[in-house]
Amino acid sequence: MNSLNITDYTQTLGLQAKQASALMAKAPAAIKNKALKQLAELLRANVEALQIDNAKDIERAVAAGLAAPMVDRLKLTPKVIETCAQGCEQLAAMADVIGEIMGMREQPSGIRVGQMRVPIGVFGMIFESRPNVTIEAASLSIKSGNACILRGGSEAIDSNKALAKLVQQALVAAGLPANAVQLVQTTDRAVVGELIAMPQYVDVIIPRGGKGLIERISRDAKVPVIKHLDGNCHTYVDDPCDLALAVKVADNAKTNKYSPCNATESLLVARGVAAAFLPLIGQIYADKGVEMRCDEEALQILKQNWPLAPVSSAQTAIENRVPQQPILVPAAASDWFEEYLAPIISIKVVAGVDEAIAHINQYSSHHTDAILTRDHLHAQAFLREVDSASVMVNTSTRFADGFEYGLGAEIGISTDKFHARGPVGIEGLTSLKYVVLGQGEVRS
Fold it and tell me: What is the DSSP letter of 389?
C-alpha cells in the first residue's frame, strides 16, 4: 500500500470500529457470553489448522535470525490454544460489570448521585510476537462491550489472521458485528503511526511488546496510552525465611520461562540467610545454565561454597546428573536495571528488608516484586512500601498475569498509576460516568 492507501485503510478501520462499538456497548451479557463460548469451541476445533499457520511464522522467524526468546513467544502450541479457550470460558462465566451502578448517594438537594461502569469505546492494540494476544485482546474486548483494532507483529501475521478469522466467526454466530474485532491485515508499519493518531475513532492505545515499541508509541500517540516499558522483577529472600520454600520459588520465578515480563530478573538475599540460601539456589541455576551476575558479597559466598549443593546418590542414579559449574560474573551497575529475558539473573546481598525495599524502588520497573519471608511484619512493610503494580508474599513473580489473577485474560500489564495498574482485565477496559437521578428537583 502507498501512504495514501494506508491512511484511507486505517481511517476505514477506525470508522468501522466506532460504529461497531455502539452496538457492542448495548449488547446483552448473554449475547457477549455466547460469542466467547463459541470462540472457545472454535479454538479447540481448529488446533491443527492453527498450528499449520503458526508453523509458517516460526519458520520465517528462525530463518530471519529472530532471537530465541522471541521465537519462543511466537509459538502457538496446543497448550497455549487451550489456555486461550479456557480464558474465553472464564470470561463468559464472570459477572458482567457493564451498566453496574455504584456509590449511589442522596444529596441534600434530593438528587441521587452515583457512577455507572461503561465501555471505553474503541481501543487499539499494538503487540509483538505472541499470537495468543489476539485472543486475549479480542475476548476482553467482547466481554467489556468495546470494539478493538489489533495490529500484531509482522512475524506472527499468519497466526494472527487465522485467529482473528475465528473471532469474527464467533461474533457473527452470536449476532454481534464482525467489525467489533478487526485485525490490521498489512504488515506495513505506517499503519501504527496512523492508528495512534486517530482520537476521533480510537479512545485508548495499548502497546505490548519491546521497550523500543512502547517508547515510540508513548512519545507519538495523540490518544491516551496504557503501558509498561519493561519487567525488571525482583524476588527478595528475607531473614527469616523457609529455605526450602525460598529455593523452590526463586527457581520457578526465574527458570519457569525466561521470556515473559514477569520472570524474576534480580534476586536480593538478606545477609542473615545468604550463606545458607545462595549455595542451594546457585546449584540449581548452575545446572540450568543460568548466568549469575553477582555483587561482591554474593560472588564470594558462591565461589567459596563449590560444589554448591550435594546431590544424593539416588538422585544421581536416577537422573545421571553431574553438578554443573556455575557461571559467575561480577555485576555491573547497569545489571540492577536490566530486563534480561534470558537465562541471566543479577544477585545482591542486602542487610535486610529495608535495604531490599529501597533497592527495588530505585531499580525496579515497578512491574512485579516478591518477598519470601516468615516474618509477618516484614511482609506487611514490603506490601505497603514497594511501589510496584503487583507485590507478592511467598510466591513466584510468574503469577503476575491476568489469567492467573482470575481476570479471564489480560490486555497487558500496566505500570502506570492512572486508570489501570497491574494486569488489565475487564475493568481496565471500562470507564465510569456519573449518573444523577431526580424527581423534579431544581437548583436554587
Answer: S
